Amino acid sequence: MLVNQIANTGQKSSEINVFMKELGYSYDCPRCALVFEINGQSPDGPNYKFDSPENYLEQLILESPYHSDEDIYGFLSAERYLIFKDVTGLGEAGCSRKLQEYADHLGADFKKHREITFHTAIGSSYGNLFQLRQSYLEALFLITNYDYLNSGGNPALSIQDYIFEYAVSLIPRDYWDNRFASLDRKLRQSPALLETAIELSRVNLNLTKASETLGLHRNTLLQRFPN
Fold first, then answer.
1. Rounded to whole angstroms, how far apart are CA atoms 55 and 60?
2. b/e string for 176-207 if b means 16 or more Cβ within 10 A?
3. What mean pLDDT do residues 44-48 have?
4. Is 77 in contact with 50 (CB distance < 8 Å)?
């Protein structure tokens, strides 16, 4: 499938060329990756999978007012679906907002008619087909860390709001292991301290929000940290 070829290789190949020619897609159309992941389903309904013959999400994509013939889409797995969305007609100024609206609309419609909820992630826009793997990797980062990053309860996350976190994730693990070895040992020795550090990281070091989430008084939270 074309979306898998683009997402997994990001390099020119005869297989991609065949798909692009047969489907009439442009190589230089600006697109961005949207990854959808099934998060919850009604226990009374059928067990829906993205690779099932009845693909309701594809129907919604085709019916959307934002649909373009340059949209490239398909399932990555039973639980994940990928759209390389054409952003040409969205306008540079309002592109991020319209992509958010697009993702929210698909998610809301799916929940209403299929009682299924999504996690959704939006990567950056790129102008060349073989740069789209980078957009996919950005969206994949958001989906993989969705629960940690989504402290605001948003249905869709955009990489534009998490540039720093994504950039940090690209730093080699060896650097972190060497730079913070002492801190890592202290955190592992104290589950309460580790829990507090994680929550403070999630809410950008906001002591009040972290205290509320952990069910602690602000002073009690501060006392967890040694002098």
1. 9
2. eeeeeeeeeeebeeeeeeeebbebbebbeeee
3. 71
4. yes
Q: How many domains does the chain have?
A: 2
**Which among 102-106, 120-124, 144-148, 153-157 has the top mean pLDDT?**
120-124
Bridge partners of 86, per DSSP, are 31
pLDDT digit string, tens, across residues 104-130 = 999 888 888 778 888 999 999 999 999
Say yes or no: 119 and 12 in one domain. Answer: yes
pLDDT of residue 120: 94
Does one domain contain both 116 and 211?
no
Report DSSP letters for 87-117, one per residue: -GGG-TTTHHHHHHHHHHHHHHHHHHHH-EE
Rounded-to-10 torsion of CA 135, 70, 81, 101: 80
pLDDT digits (tens, 9 = 90+) for 10-22: 788 888 989 899 9
Q: Which domain holds residue 103?
A: 2-169
Q: Do residues 131 and 212 share a domain? A: no
pTM of the model: 0.80
Q: Are 25 and 70 in contact (CB under 8 A)?
A: yes
Return the amino acid letter for 208. Answer: T
Indicate if 111 and 164 belong to the same structural domain.
yes
Which SS3 state, helix, strand or coil, does residue 31 take? strand
What's the one-letter identity of residue 196?
Answer: T
Q: What is the residue type of 143?
A: I
